[in-house]
Write a structure and sequence with these properties.
By secondary structure, the chain is an alpha/beta fold. The protein folds into two domains: about 140 residues, Rossmann fold (3-Layer(aba) Sandwich), CATH 3.40.50; about 60 residues, DNA polymerase, domain 1 (Orthogonal Bundle), CATH 1.10.150.240. The chain has nine helices and eight strands. The strands form two sheets. Strands 5-4-1-6-7-8 form a six-stranded parallel β-sheet, with helices on both faces. Strands 2-3 form a two-stranded antiparallel sheet. Helix 2 packs across helix 3. The radius of gyration is 17 Å and the shape is globular.
Length: about 220
């Protein structure tokens, strides 16, 4: 039995692969905003996982006002067509079942808006495995560490017995800021170089390996 009683999960790139719906939404927003040099479809995977408010300001020079407008344009597409254009990674259901049988308290801590995250978890009937579903709020929870801090408080997680599972450097940074361990997964949207250079406590290559590590 692992030392972790509380297991937090990222969503995009960790439990599900949202690439198709998200990338279409990104392209829709960029065209609406007149952004021309945003790269090809493959390169847009870099925006899956982090806070769009932060990365789009940094990359495209949006002001705080125009980045809000850009994200609203993205949501015009994503909230209707994109959110369900998504698939659960192979082995995820079995991994969650195994952790639940082991008595773990499982919760979500995603930078995706909370209402959208709840719809996705419900769509794939993953609700039964989770004790709490925590997501971003534009007003109070934008960065990963803020979402994680909020979700941990909701489930009463002991930092010494809590671990975050994610696929991007932002997950490792958020976990470190909240004083908890982290697991980087290699099947998501972070490159091998990103996973290896991030300060994850552990890394795994398959959901089966993750279950063995955490159960």
């Amino acid at each position: 039995m692992s030392k972790y009683d509380f297991i937090a999960f990222d969503l995009d790139g960790t439990l599900t692969d949202p690439e198709s719906g998200l990338v279409e939404g990104f392209i829709y927003a960029f065209k609406k905003m007149g952004v021309k040099n945003y790269g090809d479809r493959a390169s847009l995977r870099r925006f899956i996982g982090p806070s769009l408010y932060e990365v789009w300001q940094d990359e495209f020079g949006f002001t705080k006002e125009t980045v809000v407008d850009a994200i609203e344009k993205f949501r015009e597409y994503y909230n209707i067509y994109g959110w369900w254009d998504n698939v659960v990674y192979d082995g995820i259901v079995e991994m969650l079942e195994g952790l639940k049988k082991a008595g773990k308290k499982i919760f979500l801590a995603t930078s995706k808006p909370e209402n959208t995250a709840k719809k996705i978890i419900s769509l794939f009937e993953l609700d039964k495995y989770f004790d709490f579903l925590g997501g971003a709020s534009a007003d109070t929870r934008d960065h990963k560490w803020q979402v994680l801090e909020y979700a941990m408080a909701e489930v009463g997680a002991d930092p010494k017995r809590t671990v975050l599972v994610g696929d991007r450097v932002y997950d490792a940074e958020g976990a470190k800021r909240c004083g908890i361990d982290s697991v980087g997964v290699r099947w998501g949207h972070g490159t091998m170089e990103e996973i290896d250079s991030s300060e994850f406590t552990y890394t795994v290559s398959t959901p089966e390996e993750l279950l063995e590590l955490l159960k």
